[in-house]
Request: fold
Amino acid sequence: MRELAGRHVWIDGSLEPAEGRHLSAFDRGFQLGDGVFETLRARAGHPTELAEHLARLRRSAGGLDIPLGPSLEEDLTLGIAQLLAAERLDGPDGDASIRITVSRGVATSRGLLPAGPTDPTIVVQAWPVQPPPAGHLERGLHLVASSVRRDPASPLGALKTTSRADYVFARLEARRAGADDALFLTIDGRISEATSANVFLVRSTADGTELATPALDSAILPGTTRTWILGWAGAAGLRPSEGSLVPADLAAADEAFLCSSVAGILPVTMFNGTPIGSGRPGPWTARAREAREAFIRGTDRHAP
Reply:
């Protein structure tokens, strides 16, 4: 079986052996987490929502004043194609997870800010997408609230940076609690997001069945899959809603799920030890996952 880490990486315009030594010890991404990244999925050599991911990559880099040249989109489109071909993930059955990482680059001076301009380091990696464990689809995910709180006023909340210590800490909390993932709350107690996914809940209201998700002012990353789901919901017969949600809303929901670019849509059936709805994955979650996977496969390109 081929190693999941892959045989090649794409670095600053060229393919390199994956096992080589690639980064300088003075690279600020290594030393300070001074960088941004994106993860996305590619099916049969076709990256899903590449334009949206590259636009968000530019926004994140701009938030940290990391300069990206005008040819970034063209370079990365070519680089991804080269890497998928080298990894043999561009065939009809190819299903790849892609990570694009950009650091500020090498700076030999010390300090939080480099003494002068640097050239960003740009890396692309690819792995075969592994199907979720059967239990995740059959029984759903169990979440716990992280002790790490998110500040909606932080300007970093909407930037996808490589500084992920908070996320690692939260996932460790989940593991210690015997849960699958952790859910961040804001400093005022509202639901924010999971460690690598946005959260949705389905609930019955007087106006019909609502698909609710935390608003952008809840210290969340504006996920591309989140945007797709909000567009899909109306056509599917759900009333999409973005607003302020609290843990009690999740506990009272009929069903809930997480969404991300690579894992897609996964059911959530327990939060802090309490079942959500029936305690089993719900029908709307299954429909949403099926629709999203069809969109990624290209069999439903007309979906929102």
The mean pLDDT is 94. Helices lie at 28-32, 50-63, 72-86, 134-138, 165-176, 224-236, 247-251, 283-297. The first strand starts at residue 8 and ends at 11. The radius of gyration is 20 Å.
